[in-house]
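Notebook entry, structure prediction.
Reason for the run: the old model in the group folder had no record of what sequence produced it. Starting over properly, with the input documented here first.
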Amino acid sequence: MAHSAADLVAGANVLVPPLALDAARELLGAASVRFVDIREVREWERTGTIPGAYRASRGMLEFWVDPASPYYRPSLDDGRRLVLYCASAWRSALAAATLFQMGLTDVTHIDGGFTAWRSAGYPVERIGH
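New structure, fully documented this time:
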């Protein structure tokens, strides 16, 4: 293997540095920011999500932000800063770097992901079944 997953994540973090956990918490509720939970539906149901976060599983994210895609979601392209997160900041690092490469310059991801968020005692919203 020429590059490990850890190598790819490290490179993504150079391209789009993660947002410190406390800085992310300060942005919660800001009108200019959209938190985006890129974990899978089973993760949302099992552990909850950051209150108000838009849920966009990692597998569809690029298609949902691309206006040329038949899966385009305008709510991810409304001018707000996108703050992505996954469980531990590996998937979100790769996703943030990909969106940046697609031309979205106001994108970042939460250092430590949802696991760090929840461990810090920050607000969590339960998802109904």
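Summary: Residues 21-119 form a domain with the Oxidized Rhodanese; domain 1 fold (CATH 3.40.250.10).
The old model has been moved to the deprecated folder.
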